[in-house]
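chain below, 90 aa
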Amino acid sequence: MRITLKLDPLFRAKISGEGPITLELPDGATVADGLAALSARWPELEPMLRAPAVPYSLFVNSRIVPRGRAASFALKDGDTLYLFEPVAGG
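prediction:
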């Protein structure tokens, strides 16, 4: 299956600002599998993705995916996986 991965500027800066990324994943792949494929393609992102101290939010299409559910949240062909640094304000 094919998914699109969109990264916020924090993550894009680590991969030379590359825009939306298309990933080929096996049928039945999860959000965690998508993140593993991203890390395999750009190993410099792996420390950020694995560190619990690095805050980021995951969305599939418009649905938030808690990081603790990444291994069980199944992706479908055509999904868009968003990886964003949370924003706070006041």
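The two ends are 41 Å apart (CA to CA). The longest strand covers residues 2-7.
thats it, cya
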